[in-house]
Amino acid sequence: SVSLFAMSTTPSKSLRDRFRAFVGGSAAPSGSGPAAAATGANPAFGAMSATGGASAASTSPEPEADFADTLSVAHPMPQRTANIQKLLQHLHTGALPDSMERIWFAVRDLTQPEHNPEVRQLVLALLKRMIQVHSQKLGVFRAHLFQVLSNHELGLDTPHVLAAIVALTRNGHDLSFFEQQIGQQLLDMLPACAKNNCLVPMLVFIREVFQFNFAALDPAAVTDIVLCVCRICTSTQEGAEAKACIAVFSAVAAQGHLSLNILDPVLAALCRVMCIDKFTVPAARVVEKIFNCAELEAMWSLRTLCGFLTADPPAPLNLLRGAVYSLSHIGWGYMKVETTDIKIETILPSFVHAITLGHLIVTFDIGMSMRTLVEKRGRDLQPPVWDLVLDVVQSIEECGLLGTQPNLQAALQDTLLAIQALYEADDYTGDSDRLFDVLESFPGDLDPGCALDYKVKSLRPPSSTWLQDIDVLVERYFVREHRHEYKMQ
After folding, report:
1. What is the pTM for the complete model shown?
2. Of 162, 176, 277, 295, which has the fewest beta carbons less than 10 angstroms from its beta carbon?
3. How far is residue 444's CA from residue 479's CA, in Å, rounded to a whole number?
């Protein structure tokens, strides 16, 4: 399309002179030529874009008489800010009317603390937009801009500084010229972001940096950042912040190696947030990634999760629940661990200890996990594992909660019925005497027929205690039994 500049009666005017005419700048100094002296009409910014921006050839012999001069300290503050606003609006569709370096050095004084926040933030917004327009042509100038943003006092300007850094790094993809400094900068900015309501964008940016440039970062800074994110995750009440924290942990775990000094805090943070329904599966997926990093991380993580359940003093309730959920799904649930063979017998003793803490919801979670274990893996369990399963079941029976908690009793009853079904199908390899002792002691309405048949068959007159055994059977299945059909049996 034909631009307004192409229709101008002064075709020799440069883009800088045209922009000066628009913003109301004075004519160029004498000796700059007729093109520089002409002010011309007042063209729209769209016309500047249509003519290719800086592609128009300048005929001025004095390049210092350019658009950047209209932004310099030589002009009144209202004129400078008005020109910055017009330029910022123009950059949404057009190119820079001058070199980025000239424009930046003309306005950088406005970022100093003595200027009001609106002016500082306007300049930072302009810097961000100029970076976006020239992101592929900055070169070593990137290092200068990063230094400027790193040294800028944050406070109210924090969201704008963050936005400029995000633009400078192309959303974490390019850290050229400041790879070793960016980690410490992110760490320094986290507290300010938390105070100025831009923590979620900051966490999202950290995730991008970790995902694309993890190996280039300073390991010490990475450790400190992850520990800070752990504290945020365990203390936040905002769902968006928790989700962003999980994404950061996922990016770290995806690197295939976690430092052991951050493994425990990360697992603790994930276990705590796992108790929130909408974050249960995402957090569990990150735990699965951690277990699949390497054998060392898997074994350390297993030890850590079991340690949460056996800690003295006891761990918080949400941490206990998250550990139970993670261990049960790592051991026999939907999580798949390929780095090492997770032994069920290393998990169940910690469940027994957790039951003794007296938390109803934790005991219920363990009861549900036992039902899943028996139904999914019961045919493959070996005698030592069955002993531990019965230890857990007996601990639940003895915890004193069954009489007042029908849901817990129902979950345990389902587990016992599943074990009984395995026995009747000849797939139970554990201690039969102990199994039926557990079935007899259950206070619910289990069918006692199977247990009674087993007990009767075990009566042997040569035994020195056979009369006492008969007395126990009569007491249990006739005196205390309220169902007539079993009394008749």
Report:
1. 0.79
2. 277
3. 17
